[in-house]
Design a protein that fits this description.
alpha+beta, five-stranded antiparallel sheet, 8 helices, two-stranded parallel ribbon, elongated, single chain, Ribonucleotide Reductase Protein R1, domain 1
Length: 334
Amino acid sequence: MARPTAAPVSRQRGLALITAMLVVAIAAATAAYLSLDQQIWSRQAQNLTDRAQAEVVRDGALEWAITILAKDAKDNPESDNLTEDWAKDLPPLAVEGGQVAGKIHDAQGRFNLNNLVRGGKPSPPDIGAFRYLLQSLSIDPNLTDAVIDWIDADSNASAAGAEDIDYLQMQTPYRAANQPFQSIEELRLVRGFTREMVDKLRNFVTALPQPTAINVNTADKKVLEALLYPSPIMAENLAKGAPYKSIADIRAKNPQLPSDPNTIAPYGVQSTYYEVEITTLFGRYQRNTEALIQRGAGSAGFRILWLSQRLPYRPAASEPSSAENPVPAAGGNI
């Protein structure tokens, strides 16, 4: 009788080997998938932990700002200037698992956009100051008209301004706010303004919930020049005399200042509104937090008017005008 050949046995061994390799491949793929899934879950858990830590530290930094401003109000009730403790930056401070840094800016050392309309009517001294500020930053001063139209309650467009009828004709239609600015980011919604322009203005303008006086003790030279736009050369002398203790002190040291309130925008030496900037870094989680604080009488009088948290700020090189690329206003409550 003939003996069976070895071919079927070889084929069986080959199939067994292939099957074993497939099983190993499937097991390896499953293990890799589970490992990747575990890494993603671990990273998400770490991010949540870092975020929670950052928020706790951020709240602590805000309390630091309120405490130091409250102490200043008690120790220096008559005036506010850049030699006081609140004006000193909080350098990067190591905390468990990360670090935090903070700055306090006097918001009244900047031009308040909402000063352009006082008592429901355009304010000529403030308009002149803002036009000068725009021109000094190589921005078309005629854009002032569009800013006024954005604030005032009527629907009548100024000569170089814009109202509902203009905004509704855009590719993405919307209406003029017809109310005070909530944030300077809102400028990007005003016809003619670009992100690049807002970046230029960022350190010189602010948006406060009511018209305010400019604190000459804390204002930048460009803001002082805008304040004294009929004769900006006086700004240098005004800056040299700071810090001032009172308006009478300003007048005594600068007798050449205009005395007519219709010639120069309101100014003073005290501030109520402060912008706080806090940077937190925990692991891969880095955020910049900005807040607007209103200082009242005593620690109980402090209010955080808005709080905004965002990625680290990077100025834009250029951007299309808001007419083509409208964006929502940033800096709302969170």
